[in-house]
């Protein structure tokens, strides 16, 4: 037992079963605190966290800069209402536009909400300039969120018949297939929306030539190229934004997850010429709320100041190198990813077993598909922590794969 914890895990779990609406299967443990790369549950058990709050805790758990930003801003102003500008809102928008190819920012609280905004700009653009074109092309196996429109945008087969009727106007094409997407574009198309690296789909990257061709296609057809960088943005892939890898500029980029370091925060960035909303088209009670703005600014500044994108690139390379070194022993294949968004394939569909055995030994990892393992640690991860992860994973693979 953890001497610091005063909580009785059994009674907490009993209460959770009673009062939490079921949406997902969770293990029988309750998380209580975090610091850096580690989480602790109410039994005092410590976990090395390679899920990172789902690619969210970019600075690790409970970093000083977030604590400070929250304390200082909450003493000054927590909410001014979305009807007024506030100071951190303006400063944070300046920071994001200074550091990216974009001119304008809309702030929200979740990735799905930022993507809804992107879909709305694309449809508005289609209505105004493309004779009412409204169709948006997305990729098979993509993930764009859980609101009705973003579920419709998502190219997940399991969702195809869920919550009918769908929001109309989304077409799904296979990723990296230029001919398929050229064929899919019609007079009804207003945008193409893609993740530069599919996260939930299992870490599959767009090819550089494909992206460049899409940029040309969008220019030629006068339609928008939208990058959903909710998972890839803010240092995750080794650059501040993933689009920087490809030598192109999207028309819209959405950010969430890592941008708040754990605080619910999202942003939509676009160019001056797509600043086309009229008053009331888009908004939200919590859009640009000062507390989130102060946290976001602190998180992004810290990532830039500490050059954590570079660390993501370096540690990502080291992780892939270490995975390669155990690959033949465990028949691991398709070791892939960019920066600290990494996945590989198991020889058998035992992903959830590997995850639960790792958890028992104090390591948190993710299995987005039965044979895939995904790693998305905080950007602050260091070599010894990678070694610790590889050691636990190797033990677990030895056990699980010999069964
Ligand atoms: C997580 C995710 C979303 C949804 O973000 P929420 O904050 O959960 O709404 C959208 N797009 C991508 C690529 C994501 O990884």
Automatic annotation (TrEMBL):
Q: Which Gene3D superfamilies match?
A: Aspartate Aminotransferase, domain 1, Type I PLP-dependent aspartate aminotransferase-like (Major domain)
One Gene Ontology term of the molecular function aspect = N2-acetyl-L-ornithine:2-oxoglutarate 5-aminotransferase activity
Cofactors needed by this protein, per the record, are:
pyridoxal 5'-phosphate
Among PROSITE patterns, the record links this protein to: AA_TRANSFER_CLASS_3
Supply the SUPFAM superfamilies for this chain: PLP-dependent transferases
| Pathway note | Amino-acid biosynthesis
What is the originating organism of this protein?
Sporomusa silvacetica DSM 10669
What this protein is called in its record is Acetylornithine aminotransferase
**Domain of life according to the entry:** Bacteria
Q: Does the keyword Transferase apply?
A: yes
Q: Which UniProt keywords apply?
A: Amino-acid biosynthesis, Aminotransferase, Pyridoxal phosphate, Transferase
Pfam family of the protein (one): Aminotran_3
């Amino acid at each position: 037992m953890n001497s610091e914890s005063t909580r009785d895990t059994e009674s907490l779990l009993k209460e959770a079963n009673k009062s939490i609406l079921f949406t997902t299967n969770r293990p029988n443990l309750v998380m209580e605190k975090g610091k850096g790369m580690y989480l602790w549950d109410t039994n005092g058990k410590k976990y090395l966290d390679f899920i990172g709050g789902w690619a969210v805790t970019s600075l690790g758990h409970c970093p000083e800069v977030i604590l400070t930003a929250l304390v200082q801003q909450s003493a000054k102003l927590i909410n001014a209402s979305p009807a007024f500008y506030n100071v951190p809102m303006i400063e944070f928008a300046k920071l994001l536009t200074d550091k990216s190819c974009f001119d304008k920012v809309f702030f929200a609280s979740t990735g799905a909400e930022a993507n809804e905004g992107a879909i709305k700009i694309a449809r508005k653009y289609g209505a105004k300039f493309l004779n009412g074109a409204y169709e948006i092309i997305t990729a098979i196996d993509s993930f764009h969120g859980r609101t009705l429109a973003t579920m419709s945008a998502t190219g997940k087969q399991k969702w195809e018949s869920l919550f009918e009727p769908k929001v109309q106007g989304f077409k799904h094409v296979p990723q990296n297939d230029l001919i398929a997407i050229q064929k899919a574009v019609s007079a009804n198309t207003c945008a193409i929306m893609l993740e530069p690296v599919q996260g939930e789909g299992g870490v599959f990257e767009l090819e550089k030539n494909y992206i460049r061709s899409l940029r040309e296609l969008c220019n030629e057809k006068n339609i928008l190229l939208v990058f959903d960088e909710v998972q890839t943005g803010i240092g995750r892939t080794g650059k501040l934004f993933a689009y920087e890898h490809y030598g192109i500029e999207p028309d819209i980029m959405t950010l969430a997850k890592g941008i708040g370091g754990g605080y619910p925060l999202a942003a939509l960035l676009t160019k001056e010429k797509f600043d086309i909303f009229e008053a009331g088209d888009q908004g939200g009670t919590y859009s640009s709320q000062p507390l989130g703005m102060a946290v976001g600014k602190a998180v992004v500044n810290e990532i830039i100041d500490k050059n954590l994108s570079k660390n993501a690139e370096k540690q990502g390379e080291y992780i892939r190198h270490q995975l390669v070194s155990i690959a033949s022993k465990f028949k691991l294949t398709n070791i892939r990813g960019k920066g600290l968004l990494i996945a590989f394939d198991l020889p058998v569909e035992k992903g959830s077993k590997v995850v639960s055995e790792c958890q028992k030994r104090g390591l948190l990892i993710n299995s987005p598909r039965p044979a895939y393992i995904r790693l998305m640690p905080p950007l602050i991860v260091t070599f010894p922590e990678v070694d610790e992860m590889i050691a636990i994973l190797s033990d677990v693979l030895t056990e699980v794969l010999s069964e």
